[in-house]
From TrEMBL:
Organism for this UniProt entry: Streptomyces glebosus
InterPro entries listed in its UniProt record: Amidase_CS, Amidase_dom, AS_sf, FAAH2
Gene Ontology CC terms, in alphabetical order: endomembrane system
Pfam families associated with the record: Amidase
Top-level taxon: Bacteria
Domain Amidase: 41-481
UniProt cross-references to PROSITE patterns, sorted A to Z: AMIDASES
PANTHER family: FATTY-ACID AMIDE HYDROLASE (PTHR43372), FATTY-ACID AMIDE HYDROLASE 2 (PTHR43372:SF4)
Descriptive protein name: Amidase
Gene3D superfamilies xrefs: Amidase signature (AS) domain
Length: 500
């Protein structure tokens, strides 16, 4: 049975006990406005489900139930006074990495297990201003630096579809929470697929906004400070169980920081390029030159391609306008890892320099690109950034001919938990062949390196019954275009299904 648009009751046995847990935010807003339910009731029901199921999933790492119930009562009183806001009374969760005054912000790092920020992150402030009821915080990997979500403080988040597999990272707690009915919406972040990969692994929706579209102040490693800095490659974004809910939450999140660009600028996102599926021009990719795509993920891409063709869209399988995928992956690796090691201790940095100096000049592997990026000079970074601008220009030319690109998010569905402390020793199994663990980031980096928006959508399931997602990459600052395409595809191929 589907939840979402067609039915908010994925399990018959929950009727009467947990009527609203899998309803969309849009449905909840309509029910609240109609007086069918109160925010206090929704919040109690969400808390009951978390208390029932979170021990097995471990998605919620910091519950905030007392304040949630108080916020729900406030929302009901506000509605009784005639107020209405986009998320008024709707239960949501927040990724641990966002500062929330009165709750610890750890990023999974044991030395900061007791760090308590003094004020809310700008996105938490926006959620609260929109009327949302925050149920608590969701789990992350150590320092947000993994494709899984586990740490020494809060333990491991399991995939709701198969507890022996990862929910993804670094927004894995948020994706698992949504798939489990713990709130209608969540907010996460994405530097290396951290919104999109958990969505793909857990069968939900997520949107990586255009770089710079949504302010990220207060999503900062503890102990801060929470300055209005826009970090290279990294974005914050919405997660939900339908495409329309993504748009609802993005409209709350989008906009410049009031301390910087917001002093002078107001956001006006352009409308989607098209409203009907048959008007879209789409490039479909399922092969990457540096890493194979599993048969399960290729099948998911194929289901989306078939739905596009059946809906009358113009679909192409290749284009000379597509920027070079190998160079894009190399550039992404270099920019990503040059940033990730910038705060390493000097001794660790010097060890990396020694290892990089031993690389053969003709070693053009992804691992070599990563190591070279880790020890970039400023001159090296400027050169890489200049090449990125050429790629951005190439994408602008491509999006003059196409409206969106459909491609994988990672090469496989969710993989079994792998907690080897040395990620270099981990491997990803693609149809029986092993590849270096971080090579699976190639597809996520395709949108991240140039800063393009990308919407993750469910695209059916693997033969083992695991969710498979794809991403819809759109033109810079035209986020409504892939979001609208996601909506139209949801109507054609179905959307979120609750795990049995």
């Amino acid at each position: 049975m589907r939840s979402g648009i067609s039915c908010p009751l994925p399990h018959a046995h929950t009727v009467g006990f947990m009527k609203w847990n899998f309803s969309t935010a849009e449905q909840l807003a309509a029910a609240l406005r109609a007086g069918e339910v109160t925010s206090a009731e929704l919040t109690d029901e969400a808390i009951a489900r978390i208390e029932r199921d979170n021990d097995a999933i471990n998605a919620i790492c910091v519950p905030d139930f007392d304040r949630a119930r108080a916020a729900a009562r406030d929302a009901d009183r506000a509605r009784a006074r005639g107020e209405d806001r986009p998320l008024l009374g709707i239960p949501v969760t927040v990724k641990d990495s966002y500062d929330i005054a009165g709750l610890p912000t750890t990023w999974g790092m044991p030395p900061h297990r007791d760090y308590m920020p003094a004020e809310d992150a700008v996105q938490v402030s926006r959620l609260k201003a929109a009327g949302a009821v925050v149920l608590g915080k969701t789990n992350v990997p150590l320092g947000l630096q993994d494709i899984q979500s586990f740490n020494e403080i809060y333990g491991t988040t399991n995939n709701p579809w198969d507890h022996g597999r990862t929910s993804g990272g670094s927004s894995g707690g948020s994706a698992a929470a949504l798939a489990s009915g713990f709130g209608a919406l969540s907010i996460g972040s994405d530097l290396a697929g951290s919104l999109r990969t958990p969505a793909h692994f857990c069968g939900i929706y997520a949107h990586k906004p255009t770089l710079g579209l949504a302010a990220s102040r207060g999503m900062v490693p503890p102990p801060g400070p929470a300055l209005p800095v826009e970090h290279d490659l990294a974005v914050v974004g919405p997660m939900a169980r339908t495409a329309r809910d993504l748009t609802l939450l993005l409209d709350v999140m989008a906009g410049p920081d009031p301390l910087t660009l917001g002093v002078a600028y107001h956001l006006t996102l352009p409308s989607a390029r098209h409203e009907r599926l048959r008007d879209f021009r789409v490039l479909v990719l399922d092969e990457h030159p540096l890493i194979p795509t599993s048969s399960a993920v290729r099948a998911g891409v194929g289901r989306v391609a078939d739905a596009l063709v059946n809906g009358g869209a113009r679909v192409e399988r290749d284009s000379p306008l597509l920027p070079d995928l190998t160079e894009a992956a190399m550039l992404y690796r270099q920019l990503l890892f040059s940033g990730s090691v910038a705060r390493f201790p000097v001794e660790a940095y010097e060890q990396l320099r020694t290892r990089a100096a031993q690389l053969s000049a003709d070693d053009q592997s992804l691992d070599a690109a990563m190591l070279r990026g880790m020890v970039f000079s400023h001159r090296d970074w400027i050169e890489a950034n200049s090449r990125r601008e050429l790629h951005r220009h190439g994408w602008r030319q491509l999006f003059a001919e196409f409206d969106a690109v459909v491609c994988p998010i990672t090469p496989t569905p969710a993989f079994p938990h792998d907690h080897n402390p040395d990620p270099r020793e981990r491997r990803i199994d693609i149809d029986g062949v092993e590849y270096p663990y971080f090579d699976q980031l190639a597809w996520a980096g395709l949108a991240t390196m140039p800063g393009l928006p990308a919407t993750a959508i469910p695209a059916g399931r693997s033969p083992e019954g695991l969710p498979v997602g794809v991403q819809l990459i759109g033109p810079m600052f035209e986020d409504r275009t892939p979001l609208r395409l996601a909506e139209l595809l949801e109507q054609k191929i179905g959307g979120f299904q609750a795990p049995k």
